[in-house]
Write a structure and sequence with these properties.
Shape: elongated
Largest sheet: none
Strand content: under 5%
Order of helices and strands: HHHHHHHH
Oligomer: single chain
Structural class: mainly alpha
Length: about 190
């Protein structure tokens, strides 16, 4: 009796994860970095609008928020970005080794909390019930730090270890280089 083995349902997932963290790891990291930098640009422009141009917070909407004001107030958009960040950090984690992996995990752990805060905000927006009797959806740390500053802080605390991880990943020590399965490491200079 001839058996034609069918690929297991998780076979495609395994092949995708393998590709993301081996031959396509460098490309995926660069694409992920572009997404992160675009989001950073939005927050930086909003901060400049508030602190340099002295705009009132409701009018400081960043780059995309100027032509599309509803984006700034859309908890779905903010949650979606937090989710994409979380998924990106998770999907690209297996490609890291050694010191770079420790830094990437640090960024991931902070993003888990950041994602939770956005889930809390989204839940409030959907239910219409805000914590602490606030007028608008409010995250837990936002009870202590205003939202604009809090998002700059969260993005910094995720971005810095992420960049350190990428830097170390591109410049591994000998042991880390041997453990790597991708071609992200820069060639050793003579």
């Amino acid at each position: 009796m001839t058996s034609t083995a069918q690929p297991r349902p998780d076979g495609r997932y395994r092949r995708t994860m393998e590709a993301l963290n081996t031959g396509r790891h460098r490309l995926c990291l660069r694409l992920f970095l572009v997404i992160v930098l675009a989001h950073w640009a939005e927050h930086i422009v909003q901060a400049v609008q508030i602190y340099v141009m002295d705009w009132p917070v409701p009018e400081a909407r960043g780059l995309l928020g100027m032509p599309f004001p509803w984006l700034v107030t859309s908890e779905w958009l903010h949650y979606g970005y937090a989710f994409v960040m979380l998924v990106g950090l998770l999907l690209l984690l297996p490609g890291f080794t050694g010191r770079s992996k420790a830094w990437w995990i640090t960024a991931l752990l902070v993003q888990v909390w950041h994602h939770f805060e956005h889930l809390l905000l989204l839940t409030q927006a959907i239910s219409g019930v805000n914590i602490a009797g606030m007028d608008a959806p409010t995250s837990l740390i936002q009870l202590l730090i205003p939202r604009v500053e809090l998002h700059l802080l969260y993005n910094s605390v995720v971005f810095v270890p992420m960049v350190v991880a990428m830097y170390l990943h591109a410049r591994p020590n000998e042991r880390e280089r041997e453990a790597m399965r991708c071609d992200c490491a820069q060639e050793a200079r003579p």
